[in-house]
Amino acid sequence: MAKDKETVVSSPNFPIAYTVINVEPWTFLDARNNPVNGYKVTYTYGEGYTDWVDVPEKVYNAATVKRMIEERITKHAEVFTLGS
After folding, report:
1. 3-state SS assignment for residue 39
2. How far is 21 from 50, CA to CA, in rounded Å?
3. Residue 26 and residue 33: Cα distance in Å, rounded?
4. pLDDT tens digit string along 23-73?
5. Which residues pair with 36 in a beta bridge?
6. I need a surface site. Which of 4, 18, 23, 42 has the fewest CB within 10 A?
7. Helix, strand, or coil (residue 31)
8. Is residue 21 predicted with pLDDT exceeding 70?
9. Nearest to 55 by CA among 76, 75, 41
């Protein structure tokens, strides 16, 4: 059974707004190709970009999801900035 969806909003000091649009149970592979039970958290940000983060069940909570999303958006922003 999936966790209840929580609205995760950007931190006041995080410049890019995002919205979590889906949370679903998900088994993914870690760096050693071992299966990890967790959640696929899908979100939208910026001008309609959609992405997701894989969150292990052991650390799934709003603070961890928020941190992982903001880190991912920051990495994407750096890549797009370097390409300009």
Report:
1. strand
2. 9
3. 15
4. 999 999 999 999 999 999 999 998 889 999 999 999 999 999 999 999 999
5. 28
6. 4
7. coil
8. yes
9. 41
